[in-house]
Every structure is written in structure tokens, then in C-alpha cells.
Amino acid sequence: MSFKRLAKLEFDQSIQLSADLLLIDDSRAKKVAYLNNLEVMGSLDVLLLAKKKGLIARIKPSLVVYIVLMFSLVNIFWAMIGETEG
After folding, report:
1. Position 12 confidence tier, pLDDT thresholds 50, 70, 90
2. Cys-Cys crosslink for 32: which of 7, 26, 53, 85, Cβ 3.0 to 4.6 Å?
3. At 41, which helix (H) or strand (E)?
4. pTM of the full predicted structure?
């Protein structure tokens, strides 16, 4: 599936769900959302907002957890691709 088609599907789903805010880290998907006048926030923005609201004391420990989780998800993703290709 092309990126353009995937972006359109995501946009259509956000409209159907009446989402006020999309949590997106992919830069191309963010551009599509902005072009469609949707409010976007990335994962790091969520951490900054949590700090500002006093929900977390420091960003660095949460950022380390975020990086470890993202690394783990990437490894799972690549393992899944390997299973389907070979």
C-alpha cells in the first residue's frame, strides 16, 4: 500500500472518529494531518506537556523508557517482517 493511500485511510479514520488530536510521530503523516487542518502531537510533545502539567517531575527518565520501548517495537517489527518474507 502506498504512503499516499495509507495517509488517506488514516485521515478518513480520524474524521470518522471525530478526533480532536492525533498522536503521530511519523513526519510524513504529520504533514498530511496538518494539510487537513488536524491538530497533531508527537510522543515527545506528550512528555513535554506532562512535565508542564506536573504529571512527571523530569523528562529524561520517561524519555529513556520511551527510547527502550521504541527500540523494542522496532525489533518486533523487523522480526515480523522476517517471518513473512522468509
Report:
1. low
2. 7
3. strand 40-41
4. 0.53
